Amino acid sequence: MLTTVLGVLGLISCATAQSSSVKVKWLDGTPKYLSGVTFGLPWPRGQHLANATTFTASGDAQLQSWATAYWPDGSLKWTGHALAASDAPAEEYIITASGPGISTRSRRQSNGVKVSDTDNDIVVNTGKITATFPKSGNTLVSSIETGNKVVGINGRLILRSQTGTPDDDEDGKPVALDHFTFESKVSNVTVSRDTIARTLVTVSGVHTIDGDGSHADWFPFTVRFYLYANSEAIRIVHTIIYDGDSTKDFISGIGIRFDVPLAGEEFYNRHIRIAGVDGGLLHEAVQGITGLRRDPGIDVRSGQYNGTLLPNASTWDQKVTSRLQWIPTWSDFRLTQLSPDGFNLKKRTKTGQSWVKIPGGTRSGGLAYLGGATVGGLALGLRDFWKKYPTSLDISNGATDTGSITLWLYSPQAGPMDLRPYHDGLGEDTYAKQLDALEITYEDYEAGYNTPYGIGRTNELFLYAFHSTPEADKLSLLTNYTNNPPVLFPEPEYVRDTKAIGGYWDVPSAVNSTAARTIESNMDFLIKFYESQVEERRWYGFWDHGDVIHTYDDDRHQWRYDIGGYAWDNSELSPDLFFWNFFLRTGRADAYRLAHDQVRHGGEVDSYHLGNFTGLGTRHGVQHWGDSAKQARIATPVYRKTFYYISGGDERTGDLVHEVLDVDKAFVLVDARRKVRDPSVVYTPDPKALYLNFGTDWAGLAQAYLIEWERRGPRWEEARDKLLESVKTYPRLKNGFVTGEALYNSLTGAWSPPPTDPSNSGNITVSHLSGVFGVLETIDQLIEHFGPDAQNATKPFYDAFLDYCYYYGASKAEQKARYGADFGSLSLKQGHSRYTAYVAYHRNNATLVPRVWTEFLGDGSKDGLAPTAPWKTERISGSDVLIPVDEAIWVSTNAAALYGVAGIESLALVGAPDVNRIAGNTTTGR
Ligand SMILES: *[C@@H]1O[C@H](CO)[C@@H](O)[C@H](O)[C@H]1NC(C)=O
Ligand SMILES: *[C@@H]1O[C@H](CO)[C@@H](O)[C@H](O)[C@H]1NC(C)=O
Ligand SMILES: *[C@@H]1O[C@H](CO)[C@@H](O)[C@H](O)[C@H]1NC(C)=O
Ligand SMILES: *[C@@H]1O[C@H](CO)[C@@H](O)[C@H](O)[C@H]1NC(C)=O
Ligand SMILES: *[C@@H]1O[C@H](CO)[C@@H](O)[C@H](O)[C@H]1NC(C)=O
Ligand SMILES: *[C@@H]1O[C@H](CO)[C@@H](O)[C@H](O)[C@H]1NC(C)=O
Ligand SMILES: *[C@@H]1O[C@H](CO)[C@@H](O)[C@H](O)[C@H]1NC(C)=O
Q: Which of 147, 162, 516, 839 gives 20 to 30 Å between its CA and that of 357?
């Protein structure tokens, strides 16, 4: 049955293009260095058959290609591509897809990466380095060789925790605490099959204390190592999940450590480099021979400073060489970034001796090198090091045969991480009290739900191997590289035309309309405003980086970081979609960064990966995991989909989508609307009859199913069948989408009437929230994916959706005429203008266009961002504020997100506003 609807898989109905070329360009200018890169490309339906297409890159660049998504007809929808490392990357690349039915003069690509996979380990040779990944034990990387030298060994993870925090003792007296140090324990190691340009080694496991059993194994990790042909670097994507008890398991350090063999290297030929500010570096040696009372000679001094091999000591001034034993050796160096504003540095000769301060600075580039002029060494860096504070870098044992570099993703110098709730419950022990509290702080509290159990964090690191100490300029370049890894992206017009990621956005119009230009410049204002707020308000930190705050407190000139539901935003009303869609249409690097950081935040910290809430996210609040509203609307992959595909299928993001595939299991354990449902409704969650909201619950699941289907993941047929069943059964609800909430059979995907209306006589539950978490975008993508061949199957569903689009903003009289009652008072009209634009476009109804702009710019903008808003910030300084800030009291993140999403979509769907036909509009713009 399915095949008749969807077309026989693998058969492409329309005439296929034989060869097509797509240009990709660097987001941020051509990099001076490239350790390899992966990117994604979309393709229009029916153009290239998955298994019969070959890809080549211009300039004969070594290219590896794979499918990341398919149209239902078996043609490619998205592909991933990897380019090998290069010292001279091209300004742009043309990727050519050929086939089916054409024989290409495709260069036979040799495997740029050599992989050996045995029972004990996986060995990867990039041509520049060889790395060995054991399949069991405590080390993730047992050795890294370059130029026949072993320059790194024992790559492992470290975790420290303690049973409490000294903060709980007012007098600062030592509290009796147990302290634990854990190491990684590897349980699973896999390697990807293709090796033309890159290979991926995935290592997972837990943290363990060997031997004494004083603490159970915990804190699962997945660390991915990306190795590119011809590269001296390894990109490391490090994911951890917190699975402790926040009252007992206080994390005091999360680290990744590599040892560096130094035996045989003279102390004065051992070098330490630590990244400082703006490309700056600390230049030190284990045994310094500069600044001494006697001069070993200019070549010796400048050689050590530069990190080159010093001339034989017999050639130096003997006044120095005869006294080398009196010059201390420095074993340990430590950079500590406990705030986004400053770092401290110090060093010591060895354990047991005092530290000596080294002048510090503001924001460290987060990279450290340890090695020798002849033995070589390693550099290890963390992307966004200072933004992820508290972080630190340790070089230790530099004066022994085996030194080490530790990158602390959570610094042991910071004091333990306290993940307990920030208040004691305030006596809110009934739903009635909790709802009343919501009235004042907007926090939706419930004991037991404010748990960090199952939240995660993903960090990105780079490891670089050297056969001798590199020049400082090189390390400076690599520091910048670590923080700004290059990104390749096709032209926005091309992406749009493929229809692979939404038909509701367009590039900024060339049409010369003042009104459209004003909307464009306002959206630009908002993007830049959030960039500035991240910096001015220091929205940084281990758990916080990538989030923004929900609402502003005008009186304190401060975002409401401490007020219940007004604090961390957790993707409320889709700022992610604003930032990603803005990026898609402009290709702008700044928008990419905002959106990228959100992906790494919302998908990880605001969502659960273990436990009862797996696949759900948490509503906005003071702590990212604190609010008791656990909802799919926050975890929905619609927020991460653009990144997933344009990154060539970022594997961690792919995992997150899989978690949401099972969110129906969480719906059984957690009744999302338990507190707000009509008390007369008796509801016991049942997998066959989950009482779900169409927009805030199902849309997230549907997006996960859609991606699983697109990428032909292990459950794609189940996902497709359930989507089809939903599409078939939903329109049978008398009022279609206006029903709002109904019973969903998670085993089949079928909808049936809600318990309030078992006979399907027609319920009306229209919430302002249903439509503002990506449901329109998900349905648009879904219908596009089903495609023209499935139109008979999807039409009733789509019609019901278009009715919803029409009636949300229609007059009460129209609503009543159609449904027998009106929808009551609804808000978020500006954000819903895109629904009106969507139905205007898809029903070809030009008479609706003035309504779109009345909602966006006229009456509807009154609870959004009106044209009459200032559209500028105001500088506040002096004693009014802690530090000078730019504020815009008229901006809330809800309003900004909706303005952006609706602005982009409405402009794309109905074109520039005609300002003479907007009801309630008092101004034509600025
Ligand atoms: C491509 O070929 C593989 C192996 O024969 C097959 O499993 C897969 O389904 C094919 N994909 C498509 C989209 O036809
Ligand atoms: C090992 O990891 C691979 C992917 O990296 C995953 O597919 C597989 O299920 C894992 N196996 C176990 C036993 O965890
Ligand atoms: C150290 O580097 C500087 C600047 O590149 C250079 O002028 C000098 O010759 C170098 N010294 C040695 C001994 O390599
Ligand atoms: C760092 O890299 C970015 C992105 O490639 C580039 O725009 C910037 O100029 C670089 N900064 C320095 C100091 O080289
Ligand atoms: C667009 O309009 C502006 C002002 O209305 C005018 O200065 C400009 O020349 C116009 N540009 C085009 C390409 O028509
Ligand atoms: C998970 O849900 C079950 C059933 O509701 C409950 O008994 C259990 O305590 C929950 N576990 C956690 C860790 O919350
Ligand atoms: C749903 O429909 C039933 C039957 O018409 C009615 O009694 C009930 O009040 C309706 N509830 C809502 C929320 O519309």
A: 162
**CA pair distance 839, 848, nearest whole angstrom:** 8
> How long is the chain?
926
Question: How far from the centroid of its chain's Cα atoms is residue 495's Cα?
Answer: 21
Please give the Cα distance from 166 to 247 (Å, whole number).
Answer: 13
Nearest CA to ligand 7 atom 5: 761
Q: How many CA atoms lie within 13 A of 653 on its CB side?
A: 25
- Which helix (DSSP H) or strand (DSSP E) does residue 904 occupy? helix 893-910
How is residue 191 written in tokens?
């390697």
> Which residue in the block uniquely carries the two structure tokens 């989030």?
547
**Which ligand does the CA of 760 lie closest to?**
7
Task: Give the tens place of pLDDT for each residue, 860-874.
Answer: 999 899 999 999 999
Mutate to test the pocket of ligand 6, among 245, 249, 612, 667 (most ligand atoms within 8 A of CB): 612
Ligand 1 and 74: CB distance under 6 A: yes
Phi and psi at 116, nearest 5°, equal -120, 130
**What 3-state class would DSSP assign to 790?**
helix
Of ligand 7's atoms, which has the minimum distance to the CA of residue 761?
Answer: 5
Helix (H) or strand (E) holding 743: strand 741-744
DSSP string, 695-733: IIIIHHHHHHHHHHHHHT-TTHHHHHHHHHHHHHHGGGS
Q: Could you give the domains of the chain? A: 2-98 (no CATH), 112-287+328-490 (2.70.98), 507-667+696-712+771-910 (1.50.10)
Q: Is the CB of 612 under 6 A from ligand 6?
A: yes
Residue-level pLDDT at 540: 98
Cβ atoms 634, 617 nearer than 8 A: yes
Write the pLDDT tens digit of every residue in 394-427.
999 999 999 999 999 999 999 999 999 999 999 9
- Among residues 499, 508, 676, 670, the alpha carbon closest in space to that of 583 is found at 508
Ligand 4 center–CA 877 separation, angstroms: 31
Residues of the chain with pLDDT under 50: 1-16, 103-106, 922-926
